[in-house]
């Protein structure tokens, strides 16, 4: 019996998840851009509500299996890294992602994040001994050039600290993705990592208690980011992946920064600069070339 979702269902799930991924940038910028909530609290509420949502989804999928969640995490720990390593990478992504959006526009942040994630994963594959095609090298260098151009000094350059934090978020998410490639149950794996990341986020909130700033609007945006854009979004993405090849899955994610940029312009009245346009073409085009080069190999 075919367990793969139909093409229509795959397309629908993929579209929803891409919007959810872009929404993470928009919701974070909405909450932090006007000071509705401090960055540490936003991160803690996002990760905590995301963990709760993922736990409910896992329970709904199979109540009996929920009791074996710890056992599943122990199976995952037989990989090269432990669940705590992956959880720390998730936390590192979350904290740098949140604080970077104190300065970055939604579209710019999503482009830096996405470009860094893909470059990190491609570079890791090359480091692990994959024989690169010329197209892969050309695409990787073009994408790196786009990132350097985007953050290089100039009137239209994004704030350096915010850009560096988002690069760190991209590297962390790239490694987190690499650590989870061999997980037998992606939803259980993600749920456990979200739960394990909560104490780290609470620690940051305690350290930065002097900057505490909570409002109903900011808290609600953080919950939306955690429950829908993160928890539900990741779960739907893993379902959609069953109907996507690795190349298609990597390629369709090229839409995320574009959706975030459009959302930023429409919803947040963010400006679309020439620098952002040129960098987008270089980064997204380079990644597409690298993906196609790997697929050709």
What percentage of amino acids are in beta strands? Answer: under 5%
What is the succession of H and E elements?
HHHHHHHHHHHHH
Helix-residue proportion: over 70%
N-to-C CA distance:
31 Å
Rg over C-alpha atoms, rounded to the nearest angstrom: 19 Å
Low-confidence stretches: 73-81
Overall pLDDT level = 85
Largest sheet: none
Task: Give an overview in words.
This protein has 297 residues and is an all-alpha fold. The chain is 78% helix and 0% strand. It is built from 13 helices and no strands. Helix 1 packs antiparallel against helix 10 (216-241), helix 2 crosses helix 5 (83-100) and helix 2 crosses helix 10 (216-241). The longest helix has 27 residues, at 7-33. It is globular and about 50 Å long. The two termini are 31 Å apart. Residues 73-81 have low confidence and may be disordered.
Brief write-up:
With 297 residues, the chain is an all-alpha fold. The chain contains 13 helices and no strands. α5 crosses α9 (186-207), α6 (106-127) packs antiparallel against α12 and α6 runs parallel beside α13.
């Amino acid at each position: 019996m075919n367990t793969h979702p139909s093409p229509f269902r795959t397309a629908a799930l993929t579209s929803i998840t891409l919007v959810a991924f872009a929404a993470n940038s928009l919701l974070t910028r909405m909450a932090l851009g006007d000071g509705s909530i401090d960055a540490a609290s936003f991160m803690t509420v996002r990760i905590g509500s995301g963990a709760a949502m993922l736990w409910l989804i896992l329970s709904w999928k199979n109540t009996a299996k929920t009791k074996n969640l710890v056992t599943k995490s122990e199976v995952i720990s037989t990989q090269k890294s432990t669940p705590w390593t992956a959880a720390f990478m998730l936390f590192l992504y979350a904290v740098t992602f949140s604080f970077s959006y104190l300065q970055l526009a939604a579209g710019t942040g999503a482009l830096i994040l996405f470009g860094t994630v893909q470059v990190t994963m491609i570079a890791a594959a090359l480091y692990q001994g994959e024989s690169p095609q010329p197209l892969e090298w050309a695409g990787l260098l073009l994408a790196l050039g786009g990132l350097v151009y985007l953050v290089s000094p100039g009137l239209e350059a994004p704030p350096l600290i915010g850009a560096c934090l988002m690069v760190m978020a991209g590297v962390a998410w790239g490694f987190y993705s690499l650590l989870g490639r061999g997980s037998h149950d992606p939803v259980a794996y993600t749920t456990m990592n979200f739960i394990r990341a909560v104490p780290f986020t609470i620690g940051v909130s305690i350290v930065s208690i002097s900057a505490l700033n909570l409002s109903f609007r900011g808290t609600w945006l953080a919950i939306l980011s955690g429950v829908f854009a993160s928890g539900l979004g990741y779960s739907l993405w893993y379902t959609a992946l069953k109907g996507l090849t690795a190349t298609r899955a990597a390629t369709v994610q090229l839409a995320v920064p574009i959706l975030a940029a459009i959302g930023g312009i429409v919803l947040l009245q963010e400006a679309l600069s020439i620098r952002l346009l040129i960098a987008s073409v270089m980064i997204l085009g380079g990644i597409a070339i690298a993906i196609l080069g790997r697929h050709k190999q």
